[in-house]
């Protein structure tokens, strides 16, 4: 017997249907949508490119060590400042991208 619960948990068909419906509805309500490639949905079926589907998500994310999460929180402010400074320096960023 393990100290940890089964992960991912076993779901009944009813629970799976409920969870997937909930995730799809949340994704749609929060704009987590993508358009399928024209190779998947031909133009004759989507002439105005209005079809969309939820972006790929997972019902049960990979487990992540709590200590790593806390370490990430500790450096988040510094990372945000670094990211913002890089993003606003268009000249330097252009040089880095053009190489």
Describe the structure.
The model has no long low-confidence stretch (mean pLDDT 90). 49% of the residues lie in helices and 4% in strands. It has two domains: 1-60, no CATH class; 64-99, no CATH class. It has a two-stranded antiparallel ribbon. 0% of the residues are buried. It contains three helices and two strands. The chain starts with 12 loop residues before the first helix and ends with a helix. By secondary structure, it is mainly alpha-helical. The radius of gyration is 21 Å and the shape is flat.
The main β sheet shows up as: 2 strands, antiparallel
Parts with pLDDT < 50 across at least 5 consecutive residues: none
What is the approximate shape?
Answer: flat
End-to-end Cα distance, whole Å, is: 56 Å
Total domains: 2
With strands numbered from the N-terminus, the spatial order across the biggest sheet is 1-2
| Total E-strand runs | 2
Number of helices: 3
Helix and strand run: HEEHH
Round the Cα radius of gyration to an integer and report it.
Answer: 21 Å
Approximately how much beta-strand content do the residues carry? under 5%
Return the average pLDDT rounded to an integer: 90
Structural class assignment = mainly alpha
How much helical structure, as a percent, in the residues? Answer: 40-55%
Oligomeric state, counting identical vs distinct chains: single chain
């Amino acid at each position: 017997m393990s100290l940890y619960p089964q992960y991912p948990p076993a779901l009944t068909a009813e629970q799976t249907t409920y969870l997937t419906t909930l995730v799809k509805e949340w994704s749609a309500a929060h704009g987590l949508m993508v358009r399928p490639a024209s190779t998947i949905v031909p133009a004759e079926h989507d002439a105005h490119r209005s079809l969309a589907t939820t972006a790929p998500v997972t019902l049960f994310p990979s487990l992540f060590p709590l200590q790593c999460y806390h370490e990430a929180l500790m450096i988040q402010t510094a990372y945000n400042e670094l990211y913002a400074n890089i993003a606003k320096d268009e000249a330097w960023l252009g040089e880095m991208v053009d190489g």
